[in-house]
Fold this protein.
Amino acid sequence: MSLFEDFSVTAKVYANKVSQKADEAVEISRLKITEKRLQRDISKSLKLLGAKVYKAYSAGDSSLDVGGDVTDIRDMYDSLKTIRTKINKLKNSSVTDSDEKSTEEKG
């Protein structure tokens, strides 16, 4: 191959890697927005649950059923955990790719 062909192939490889990293960054940002939204929803649900329990307790109502509320909050925490795992995987894959690149350059 000529020098120009080598350069062209190398440029395409790096352009693809840059594009992949940009896609990963967009996905991480999207997941972080979802994470913040879930945190806000959890906080809101906990506040409403607390108000519901307080109101029932103040009125002397001991038959309050909060099982559905607790299940919903638990599901939100599970979703939050899943999102955080995805974010960490994306971040770690970026670090791993960077480490491989630096190792190849040194070798």
Q: What stands out?
A: Residues 3-89 form one domain. The chain has two helices and no strands.
